[in-house]
Amino acid sequence: MMASWKSCLWTVFVLCLLGKISGLDNGLALTPPMGWLAWERFRCNTDCKNDPDNCISDRLFRTMTDILVSEGYAAVGYEYINVDDCWPERERDPRGRLVPDRERFPYGMKSLSDYVHSKGLKFGIYEDYGNFTCAGYPGVVGHLAGDAATFAAWGVDYVKLDGCYALPVDMDHGYPEFGRQLNLTGRQMVYSCSWPVYQIYAGIQPNFSSIIEHCNLWRNFDDIQDSWASVESIIDYYGNHQDAIVPNAGPGHWNDPDMLIIGNFGLSYEQSKTQFAIWAILAAPLLMSVDLRTIRPEYKAILQNRKIIEVDQDPLGIQGRRIYKHRGIEIWSRPIVPIQGQYYSYAVAFLNRRTDGTPSDVAVTLRELGLNNPAGYRLEDLYEDVDYGVLSPQTKIKVKVNPSGVVILRADAQPSFAYNAIPTRTPYAPLNDIFRLTRK
Fold first, then answer.
1. Comparing 422 with 28, which gets the higher pLDDT?
2. Transmembrane segments in this chain: where (predicted)?
């Protein structure tokens, strides 16, 4: 398996060199970014006098940096500490430069960035392609080159560019231009765009060819809120629009369904497991927005599940699909490594959207899931950590899925001695290779 994984990673690398995988030419985000982002949990709390522990401040981000390292998050792949809105002063300085809030960030952003880097992590920041940010702070319009240079001087590794107070029709020019300015600084910075979602809201069809070319990741849908209804709406959007969404994802360019809210107030334990599993199937960025100081152990364990993170970070970068939906039961499937001949391995998530209070049994053969490798698949439950051994495509499996819960399995394709030493494979075409289940 390790040899196959390395082979696939090398294939992705070579394809990038040959220009076969098109995307922003900064060599970054070849797997979905992972880290911590302030917005959903801490919003725009600037009241450091009355709430010093939770306000948007230098102190908050240094604390989360320390915890990301000391509590094992960095060890499983979370590497970005991302500041969101509400960090600057309300006015630029006399030279037109952005200035961090002098009371809440008294040492400046370069000092904070240096601290994050000293812990082996990377530093992200927020701005807006508009006159103002969503919370009313200065936007980048009129200052694209200067702000890009400022971020580079501060040692920024990741820039999220929102789209409030901007004309969606101008974004087709503005977002690529700011990305160009970021690249001209000579510093590599992941570029997260809100470009398509604002155009979709305005009734404009986004040019995803251009978005893929200029952005490392982008938002398609609503901001996530701290509720199961919000998570469900995002899952539905990605399932209902998957024919248009899935082909856009790949190494260096990702669909972003928004932050992980696991460990906050709005999701149950089962619902938290569901968000993490489905985000992995979607090849989504894993950006936690949670108070890491108070998170309960069972939610921390979800966020640090190495086997599900491995699915999310699969080097092929193929986004998964919803392949079945009937009477509240959904099945989602994602091709992953290792590949044996023409057969992919898969991560498969069984989702129970029912609310009738009792677990549901789902029975299906591997063949009905589209798993046709004659040599079979080694099946493993990634939450329960149970290895079911090698099963043939004809084997019928039955899983018990809790209400609003999930079961996520990994099916590793097994080698066959009938294959040649250098196997060939059929390229995965998401628009054509749609798996179908037999409904009984």
1. 28
2. none
